[in-house]
Amino acid sequence: MTANIAVPLDVPGQNRQRYRENYGKITKGSGRLMLFAGDQKAEHLNDDFFGQGIDPEDNDPEHLFQIAAMANIGVFAAQIGLIARYGMDYHDLTYLVKLNSKTNLVKTSQAEPHSPQWIDVNQVVNFKDTSNLDILGVGYTIYLGSEHEGEMLAQAARIVFQAHQAGLVTVLWIYPRGKAVKDEKDPHLIAGAAGVAATLGSDFVKVNYPEKTGQDSSLIFREAVQAAGRTKVVCAGGESTIARTFLQRLHDQIHISGAAGNATGRNIHQRPLAEAVRLCNAVYAVTVDNATVDEAYAIYKGD
Known about the structure:
about 40% helix, TIM Barrel, globular, eight-stranded parallel barrel
């Protein structure tokens, strides 16, 4: 499973096999990433966890861990505090530690988006060693176009290098956002963001899926996949939508656009536990097992 994984040159010799093993685990040997996102407790406050159309159990952070434990996933992404508080009861999960986050309270009209690093890679490595949890990688968000992009780019560059030095996999969330950005969903701009991830050397980059602009989004998204080069592109799951539509869009992203997976949060965790697990398994089937939309939808329906 690990023999054919291309190891970046910033991974030192003594950690190259560890990197291969982590990359193989995080992609389940498929080369594609099914990331279950549990980082939105900070990013979106309680907007995504309590209210109309959201299962009441979603307000409890443990709901996220229960889904991740019961479903097929590649990795569960969350801040280190959540992992530290619940990891003792969910020791068998594979984790990705999100190194920065900000709330959605301060709007772009008030201040440029800025999300400094909370902890560093060495602290994650120490936590991995002392907790004995299966931490496979780290993640970081950059708001490209913000007046603070320089600081975030510099932090991201150091994070990717330090993570690779430790044999960890990296995922960058890159969103064009700020007063200089006229259209966050512009396909050409999203492709530029994917290209920035390539210059930073990240293994994966999570970007938003472009809005339709008179032609199929899955076709125009190819620009971003090509611009990223050997950095693999995964798509944000976006706001909650009906399951079949979501699965069809994911299938098109992979098989038409050439994307290498997804990072999904709200579309999964806002549902009751049993339904969330079935949808998670359906998303995994499309991403990792090359299931058709019909096959994945049958998994979701429990057929």
